[in-house]
Amino acid sequence: MLAVNGGKPVISEGTVAPWPYVTEEDREAVSNAIDKAVPWHWPMDPVTELEEAWAEFIGMPHVLAANSGTAALHMAISAAGVEPGDEVIVPSDTFLASASCVLQANAIPVFVDTDYETFNIDPAKVAEHITDRTRAIVAVDLNGLPADYAQLREIADRHGLTLIEDAAQSHGAFYQGKPAGALADMSGASLNGSKCLSALGEGGLFATWDADQHRLARRVLMFGEEIPHQGRDYNARIMGWNYRIDVLAAAFTRSQLRRLEHMSQVRQANGAALSKILSDLPGVRPPAVPDDRTHVYFFYPLLVQPEDLEIDDLPVESFRDAVEQAVKAEGLGIMRWQHQPVPAQTLFQEMRGYGRGCPWSCGHARPGHSYDPQRYPVASEICRRRLVLGQSFSSLGPPNDLQTMRAFADVFHKVLVEERDELITLARAQHARQG
Ligand SMILES: *Cc1c(COP(=O)(O)O)cnc(C)c1O
Asked: Which cofactors are named for this entry (predicted)?
């Protein structure tokens, strides 16, 4: 019997380890940072050490640690020379910050639909959105799978655009042998507690190949000031913010980074093992991984496919909600994540922005921008069918292992195969309730 109907859950409490995976080494690193951080100065050693270690890990020369991924992306947009009214291409299915970083520079996000196989921006649909105002493309390595950089690079070069990687979900992944974070002209990564490289709390990493972009991003990071090698003149050159990372977050992240390579290998192996089992189960589609890249499964996205079960009168939504409810009751964390493409969010539907409709109405933008959700049918379809495992609540990272993945798979086997009749009854009841 399904646990949602009173049966015994497949997974008992304590079986699945939460993310991040904290070791004695991490505790020592934070404790040492406390000892060395008084009095306050900038930058403190753990911050510089984190920046140098990330630069070495991804093989990119210039790195700045920031206090969030959102901040790191805003730094990248500004360092690309994006100005008010300029346009930046962004994917339609992602976390808000991939697009709101553009608004933070008073510029205009232009959304492009998604590829149904990779969940990433569809390179074939980018060119049609490029205008004489376009300055940059933000590609997101969604779920932990790098986007299609060979094609995106070609488009960016052809149109003279800066290519920016949002690597918030993909630390430790590879594309054609190159590490996530170093796949474009610049990158922004998040160190939010849930992410594959975690600060436990909050943090971010900006990276670039270019010394001038590095200087510009650093101004944005610290009050618009030029930070010379010694001393500080307290003279803001441009609009800047305080995006400095907390020293304890930096120390914790630096320590985690020593194990990132290993942790990524565990994630890859766990995801591959789970997909191998789930690909034989009707009712869900496991994520695809093209041959030229690796997946680190920040999220493990599943698309529900009630069509597999040959029940024609059941809406996808009711089936999805029943699967979510049943899987959760079996002790496995699962959720929908984004319910709709980003341009369908109220921010873009109402276009109030900073107030008075800025940046769309401030006079710098081309007139006529609008965000009709129907222009993103693939992203909408993914949002309609998607359920995700992963993140902190059903992590594919260590110490969870192949045995944990078998437990995950057992849940789906019970829900979709052994107790399918109960699941369908549950879905029909959902449907009746929703009308
Ligand atoms: C988490 C995330 C961000 C934002 O990072 P924060 O550190 O939370 O500000 C940006 N883009 C994507 C794709 C993310 O998943």
From this structure: pyridoxal 5'-phosphate
Distance CA 206, CA 215 (A): 12
Nearest CA to ligand 1 atom 6: 69
Give the residue-averaged pLDDT of 248-257: 98
Q: Is 168 in the pocket of ligand 1 (CB under 6 A)?
A: yes
CA distance 415 to 422: 8
Q: Give the start-to-end residue ranges of the domains of the chain.
A: 3-20+260-338+380-434, 24-259
Q: Looking at domain 3-20+260-338+380-434, which of 3.40.50.300, 3.90.1150.10, 3.90.1170.50, 3.30.450.30 is its CATH number? A: 3.90.1150.10
- Any idea which residue has 């907390």 for tokens? 246
How many angstroms is it from 194 CA to the middle of ligand 1? Answer: 10
CA of 415 to the centre of ligand 1 (A): 32
Q: Enter the tokens of residue 169.
A: 């979900």
Pocket flag, ligand 1, residue 97 (CB < 6 Å): yes
Say if ligand 1 is within 6 A of residue 69 CB.
yes
Pick the CATH number of 24-259 from 3.40.50.720, 3.40.80.10, 3.90.226.10, 3.40.640.10: 3.40.640.10
pLDDT digits 0-9 by tens, 329-351: 999 999 999 999 999 999 999 99
* Per-residue confidence (pLDDT) for residue 174, from 0 to 100: 98
Taking the CA of residue 142 as reference, the ligand 1 atom at the shortest distance is 13
Q: Is the pLDDT of residue 236 over 70?
A: yes
User: CB of 166 closer than 6 A to ligand 1?
Assistant: yes
299 lines ligand 1 (CB under 6 A): no
The Å distance, Cα 221 to ligand 1 centre, comes to 17
Could you tell me the two tokens for 316? 């996808």
pLDDT tens digits for range 120-165: 999 999 999 999 999 999 999 999 999 999 999 999 999 999 999 9
The CA angle 223-224-227, to the nearest 5 degrees, is 90
Tell me if 169 CB under 6 Å of ligand 1: yes
Contacts of 356-361 with CB under 8 Å at 24 or more apart are 358/106, 359/84, 359/85, 359/103, 359/106, 359/107, 359/108, 360/108
In short, whether 120's Cβ falls inside 6 Å of ligand 1 is no
Tell whether ligand 1 has an atom less than 6 A from the beta carbon of residue 390.
no
pLDDT at 228 over 80: no
Does the pLDDT of residue 291 top 70, yes or no?
A: yes
Ligand 1 binding pocket includes 206 (Cβ within 6 Å) = no
